[in-house]
Amino acid sequence: MKELVVTDPVTPLTHFKLRRVLNEPEACLRVLSQTGQFSAMDPLVDGERCGIANRVSLSGVGSSKLRPLETACETALRLAMWDQHGVQPAGQTHFGQAIRELRHIGSYNCRAIRGATNRMSTHATAASIDIRGVVLADGTSVDLLSDWNGSVAQQGFLRDVRDAGCQWFSTVLGPEYNALHADHFHFQNQGWGTCR
Asked: Per-residue DSSP letters for 13-50?
């Protein structure tokens, strides 16, 4: 079976191919190189409960730039699939143009879950990323905090990209989940299919 190609149309085999690639660190880096602007880094060990196993410094996926951040290859590759098959099509549907930047709050953060006493966040292993909005090709910003209940186009776009995130990440939390996520989407690699 042919290896995953990020830009190929989604078929019933796409998610199977993605899971197979994510189970092999070298394959993840190889497939990410098709569309990601990144450099591979040595693993990060940050105490007993924090670190990044297959670490990359990521500055873009597809045609979308990002402020450089350190994350896990799995998170970066899922983000690339989301951008290719969710963000860019939604940009064309709602605004008639491409998305040029994904605006994020970060990925790696050695901390517990907010509101929990001792349970570590998936950010502690860079198994998640927080996205706060996008910049369109014409320079217009669309942000969750100001535009979740904005124009019809803004609302449609943000809900479409949230729903698309649920196709590529196991947990997606946003403004409809709770007030802590009013300003960003939390995209997480692990979970039980929560999509709010």
From this structure: THHHHHHHHHTSHHHHHHHHTTTEEEEE---EE-SSS-
